[in-house]
Each structure stands twice: as structure tokens, then as C-alpha cells.
């Protein structure tokens, strides 16, 4: 029997490492466990710079993946996106174009690309956001470079299907967090940035400063839950239409609640201080529906979302165990 080769681009990042963890740590019999006959390869930027077309194609020709889960991207929180819109647009357009083009040329049987709820319009008539709303208006101004690069993947997937019959699709996760996140103080997403800030506040006896006024709403998914959903999508889903991956609109919480939960999980004694600078709130809500996902994922998967507080506890545990060892990532590549 010939081997099934699954290539995970972005395999060294938050979500890629979570997929590896799930494949290796699920109990025998779990549908999320690595299957016999499968070879999984977790690609990082040191293996191939996917912004480079020739290097990307050469890698695909040599490795010959059967399937691709495409996670690689320049990724950052609100403040990184706001400062480097052109870099987020160009790097991500190059990476996506090179991966999809190489996948077509080397006859990859399925590509799942990871988008983000940033792709949705900022102004919508009503929430929750659904898969049908991706192209219905401009994204929020704070991250339009990243958002348009990601949104274009959905356009590419449809065009690849129509012209070449490719089986390319995408997933749209809400904000992700978990072990092995980027914990940069300035460039990270809100949960890892606040964990790091809270740690420094506790150690140095300084205030635990949080950006904005705490009112924006965000909907989170634990990286290990998201990993399971990618494995399910790889095994079961063959439609170009994207699927939103999230725990559901009722689980949306304010940034104030996030900050309080981080302080509690970090056993920090002080209260979060909101800096309240105008413009620092970003998008007010990106609340999305998981109705499509829940209607499709079969009972044999026995999939359940990890409760937010438990996922946060596991993330904090990982941070505390790894801080100061060199394993905690920070920063972003420069231009
Ligand atoms: P991450 O931790 O920052 O990891 C990014 C990954 O992409 C790393 O493996 C990195 O490789 C790789 N990469 C970056 N530039 C590359 C390049 N030029 N060539 C090759 N590889 C490159 O990001 P993540 O949070 O896991 O994100 C994974 C996917 O989820 C992304 O598509 C992201 O847009 C999406 N997403 C993330 C969130 C979130 O809250 N984190 C939310 C929604 C969607 P090295 O580490 O080796 O440099
Ligand atoms: P977004 O969901 O794409 O906007 O990305 P983030 O994960 O960066 O979340 C941004 C939200 O968290 C905004 O409402 C920010 O005001 C709030 N926030 C509060 N403190 C921080 C922080 O230290 N870093 C980040 N990235 N966001 C913060």
C-alpha cells in the first residue's frame, strides 16, 4: 500500500504543533489519532520560505504530498497587523499563491487552507457571522492587509475548482490560543500577550496593563480542539465552501473577562488596568456561528470543545513550565 503523505505548512506554529500533539496523544481507537499508512510532515519557515515560488515548487515536487493542511502565514495580533498592513498582505498573498499553485502542479488531492474570522466584513446587518457572509463588505480597517490576503484564498479555491477541478477548501477559525503560542508582548494575540504581561506584572510588582477599554467581544478556540477539527475536515470534508471552526456565539466574551480570567489563571493579585487609548479596541465583535460545523461532524468523532477556563489553565501551565527555557516564542520576522 502506498503511503499517504500529509503536509502541514506552518507545522512549527501554534496550530501545527497542536495537530502533531493530537495525532500522537489521542488514545487508541480515537478517530483523531494518526492512522497506519499515514506520514505527516510538519514544515517550518527554516525548511522552506514559502514566499519564494521556486523553492516552494521544488519542495512540493520532491516531497509529493497527497494532502496539504496549509497553516503557514505571517500571523500577529491587532497591533502587529495595524502597523504592517502591506507586509501582512504581501507575505500572505505570496505564501498562499505559491502553496496553491504548487499543489495544483503536483496534483495534491486535497488542500485545506486556514483563514480567520478577520476575513469577515466589519459591518454586518446582524450576528452571528456565517460562511455565506465572507465577501459582503470590507473587513475591519485594523487588519485589512491580512484579511484580504486570507479572503483571496476562498476566491482562489473556487477558481481552482472551476478551471482545474481541484479539491481545495478552507476553514475559518475564531481567535486561537494554546501551548506553543507566540507570547510576544507587542505582536502577539490578546491571550498570549496578556499571559506574558501578567507574568511580568507579578514578578516585577508592576501594573497588569491591558490595551483598549475591555468592551470588545472575542470568541476563542483552544488550539488542540482546532487541531481535531482540521483532522476531521481532512478525513471527511470535500467541498470548496469554507467552514467556521468555533465553540459558538454564546461563548463570546469581553476582553475584560479575558483579562480577569488570565489574572486568575496566573494567580495574579492585582486588577487589570485598561489603558483606554482611542483606536486600541479593534473590531468590536467577530461573533461567528458554528451551526454548519455541528451539523456535519458525525457522532463517531465524539467531538467536544474544551471549556475555556480549562484550556486557559493548560496554556498557562505550558507557559509557566517553559518560560525562561528558550521554548517560549516571541517576535515576528522583520520585513
Ligand atoms: P504561528 O504560531 O505564528 O505559526 C506560523 C507558522 O507559519 C509557523 O510554522 C511559521 O514557521 C510558518 N511560516 C511563517 N512564515 C512562513 C514562510 N514565509 N514560509 C514558511 N513558513 C512560514 O501561527 P498560528 O497561530 O499557528 O496560525 C496558523 C494558521 O491559523 C494561520 O494560517 C493563521 O492565519 C490562522 N489563524 C490563527 C489564529 C490565531 O489566533 N493564532 C486565528 C485564526 C486563524 P516558523 O515558525 O518555522 O517560522
Ligand atoms: P484581533 O481579534 O484580530 O483583534 O486580535 P487580538 O487577539 O490581538 O485581540 C485584540 C483585542 O484584544 C482588542 O480589543 C485589544 O484592545 C485587546 N487587547 C487588550 N490587551 C491586548 C494586548 O496586550 N495585546 C493584544 N494583541 N490585544 C490586546
From TrEMBL:
<keyword id="KW-0560">Oxidoreductase</keyword>
<keyword id="KW-0521">NADP</keyword>
<dbReference type="InterPro" id="IPR001509">
    <property type="entry name" value="Epimerase_deHydtase"/>
</dbReference>
<dbReference type="GO" id="GO:0042351">
    <property type="term" value="P:'de novo' GDP-L-fucose biosynthetic process"/>
</dbReference>
<feature type="domain" description="NAD-dependent epimerase/dehydratase">
    <location>
        <begin position="6"/>
        <end position="240"/>
    </location>
</feature>
<comment type="pathway">
    <text>Nucleotide-sugar biosynthesis; GDP-L-fucose biosynthesis via de novo pathway; GDP-L-fucose from GDP-alpha-D-mannose: step 2/2.</text>
</comment>
<keyword id="KW-0413">Isomerase</keyword>
<dbReference type="Pfam" id="PF01370">
    <property type="entry name" value="Epimerase"/>
</dbReference>
<dbReference type="InterPro" id="IPR028614">
    <property type="entry name" value="GDP_fucose/colitose_synth"/>
</dbReference>
<protein>
    <recommendedName>
        <fullName>GDP-L-fucose synthase</fullName>
        <ecNumber>1.1.1.271</ecNumber>
    </recommendedName>
</protein>
<dbReference type="GO" id="GO:0016853">
    <property type="term" value="F:isomerase activity"/>
</dbReference>
<dbReference type="InterPro" id="IPR036291">
    <property type="entry name" value="NAD(P)-bd_dom_sf"/>
</dbReference>
<dbReference type="GO" id="GO:0050577">
    <property type="term" value="F:GDP-L-fucose synthase activity"/>
</dbReference>
<comment type="similarity">
    <text>Belongs to the NAD(P)-dependent epimerase/dehydratase family. Fucose synthase subfamily.</text>
</comment>
